[in-house]
Amino acid sequence: MTNEDPDIFGGGSSVLLVNVIVNGKKGSIYIDESGKIGETCEGTNAGLKSEAEFIIDGNGAIATPGFTNTHTHAAMSLLRGYADDMHLQQWLSEKIWPLEAHLTGEDVYRGTELACIEMIRSGTIAFNDMYFFMDQAAKAVDEMGMKAVLCHGFIDFGDEAKRESEIKATEALYSHVKGMNNPRIKMATGPHAPYTVSREGLTWCSEFSKEKDVHLHIHLSETETEVKECIEQHGKKPAELLEECGCLTNKTIAAHCCWLDDAECELLGKYGVSPSHNPASNMKLAGGRAMPYQKLLDAGANPTLGTDGCSSNNNLDILEEVKFAALLQKFFWNSDTVLPANEAYDMITSAGAKALGFGPGRIEKGAPADIVLIRTDVACNTPLYNPVSNIIYSCGSNAVDTVICDGRVLMHENTIPGEEEILKKASETAFDLVRRKEDAG
Ligand SMILES: C[C@H]1O[C@@H](n2cnc3c(O)ncnc32)[C@H](O)[C@@H]1O
Ligand SMILES: [Zn+2]
192 CB under 6 A from ligand 1? Predict the structure, then answer.
């Protein structure tokens, strides 16, 4: 790839990608100034060469739709390696929540910047994020040029005063994101999970999501214990409780979904929910069961893929995650045909984009130019019988060369502007957060 001009990172310019493999054929992609795909064609298209402000020579790269991560806690990048090898409830209540009590907006800003760097490096252009101080997450996403659906993690533990403050935080995020008027950034409600949010809290979130036409993002049935406790407390299984509270719609993204039974899979299918499979986190926190992918798909749900946060994964590499997904499904369900490469690819492209409402997740005329170039002159892409097979089973993020989101080049020739400074600041911020917690005792 040849273009060395730093202005290529500015956005708002027309770009012609030549010498790429697009939808299985050698060709070119023209991106117009509005950030949409103007045309895709075979060959180099001499006519469009004179129109484009920038020409990127893909040198035979695979052009794929950018990837979507449908469940993460981006700023938890600061907690990478802080608490490993523990069971979920102990991990959350003894290590994570006590540290998060010391979080500031600055921490979330720096952590989200770091997360964006990591996601861009693996070809991710959009993500679904649940955390705190989300106005600061929005600032980072805006500057880094990615797309995101952001929600405040709403946790009330049945306490009315806490519920009121979570409602205020959610309403404030709604106003803030609306004021940004940036189509790349949306907000959602974020009831954390049926075990941390009261019926009243769940109902408020579902009503707010419907009233404002925004997504709802929740953790669902990650562990067997939480399912048992839900039945004891509410006399219902978790997905039934969510249905009763109005939380199941086609704008719901439900993370994990490991312990859903067949009837609950049918419920998610009936409402067109998007489950987010998080295999690395589930394996690391020893959840004991993999998401019933095939049952959810057959029921009509829209299965997608997420990394979860950096404290339970411990990275945000969607290419690593998609291989884990394809392997874990086969291993856990003892089936060599479940989640084949083409369906795994759909999870991180079209299904992910559909879940978050960010276009078709395909390279086609009129679609947002969310395009990733994956090098083919590397060992993991040699030989190249089947690009989709290689993307799912053999490519690492080191093969990702160029990332374009809404027509803006975020990474080119493996370079992201400002990366060095972002990593330095994130490291300082992480150590400062841990020091503040230790000082507080
Ligand atoms: C937003 C809150 O969610 C917490 N969190 C991070 N990972 C998980 C997980 O796998 N299950 C449940 N909750 C999780 C995060 O630390 C925030 O407190
Ligand atoms: Zn999570």
Answer: yes
